[in-house]
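stage 2 :: seqdesign
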């Protein structure tokens, strides 16, 4: 079997798509699949449109002769690589890992709109955003299979993008093995870590305001903000952290939460998330729009009783989902086409 992986990022670039593409490639190769990866290079610096055209031309050189293509986004590489696959009648499996339109809209308007509410009301889109929505809808129509990591996002997308239920499949994100085997002890110095991209939807400003309120009651609390680091550096931070917080407006299948669980970190996460069915009561949930709720959950987790309960819950979470299993699931999807 010959598979092409189209991804916006690939090592040495950092980010979820880069790590996912690399590890999926390795797992597919280990199972005897011939894999070619195509990702943005010099095109990244070009304006949209021209960037897409050049990536489409590059895709035309790798898609012919392949048994299928796995596309790791719906717009930046999805559209040009999908068009190349359509021309050569190559099966397209698109893995939906985020929502580019929602991210663009929230960033532009600086508006606290959750993903679950985004498509339920009329929005004042710019011409660019209207184009993104229309072209994403067209690309999803081209796709042979649409893979979601959570049912939560699939339910949000199905109606606005007019997705046939027959096209929808689920492959969960990577859940790694534990780095630690026992619950973390209550720390002498409480260090709460936030890690991610400093963009509006990650809600960092409200977190800092809520943390300042918590510090009024417990001045010794510390907040560590981590951005733009490689995974190895992030793991060093998580190993030394006391707890993790993710107060995003919404998050679909956040890698940082799954990585935190590998280190048995007690966590506070947004209730607007696609992993609730899997995590259940493993973490503390917050209303990411409510500064008081964020503050109170920080104080709860910083207390001995709250921390020990959270540490035990994190240590008891035992689900794993390897890249080998993920590769097998993609192979099985292609074998049925």
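stage 2 :: out
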């Amino acid at each position: 079997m010959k598979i092409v992986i189209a991804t916006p990022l690939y090592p040495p670039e950092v980010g979820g798509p880069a790590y996912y593409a690399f590890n999926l490639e390795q797992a597919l190769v280990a199972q005897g699949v011939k894999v070619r990866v195509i990702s943005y290079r010099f095109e990244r610096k070009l304006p949209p449109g021209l960037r897409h055209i050049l990536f489409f031309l590059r895709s035309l050189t790798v898609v012919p002769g392949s048994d299928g293509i796995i596309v790791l986004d719906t717009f930046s590489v999805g559209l040009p690589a999908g068009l190349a696959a359509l021309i050569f009648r190559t099966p397209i499996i698109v893995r939906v890992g985020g929502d580019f339109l929602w991210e663009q809209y929230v960033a532009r308007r600086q508006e606290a709109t959750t993903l679950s509410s985004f498509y339920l009301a009329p929005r004042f889109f710019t011409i660019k955003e209207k184009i993104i929505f229309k072209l994403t809808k067209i690309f999803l129509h081209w796709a042979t299979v649409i893979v979601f990591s959570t049912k939560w996002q699939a339910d949000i997308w199905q109606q606005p993008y007019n997705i046939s239920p027959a096209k929808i499949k689920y492959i969960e994100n990577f859940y790694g093995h534990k780095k630690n085997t026992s619950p973390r002890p209550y720390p002498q110095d409480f260090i709460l870590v936030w890690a991610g991209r400093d963009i509006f939807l990650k809600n960092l400003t409200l977190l800092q305001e809520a943390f300042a309120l918590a510090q009024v009651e417990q001045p010794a609390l510390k907040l560590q903000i981590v951005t733009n680091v490689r995974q190895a550096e992030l793991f060093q931070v998580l190993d030394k952290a006391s707890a993790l917080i993710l107060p995003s407006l919404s998050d679909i299948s956040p890698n940082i939460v799954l990585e935190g669980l590998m280190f048995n970190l007690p966590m506070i996460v947004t209730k607007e998330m696609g992993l609730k069915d899997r995590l259940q009561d493993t973490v503390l949930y917050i209303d990411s729009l409510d500064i008081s709720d964020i503050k109170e959950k920080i104080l709860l987790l910083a207390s001995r009783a709250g921390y020990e309960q959270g540490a035990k819950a994190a240590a008891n979470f035992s689900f794993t989902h390897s890249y080998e299993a993920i590769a097998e699931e993609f192979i099985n999807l292609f074998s049925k086409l």
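stage 3 :: structure notes
- The chain has two domains: 2-174+321-335, 191-316.
- The two ends are 13 Å apart (CA to CA).
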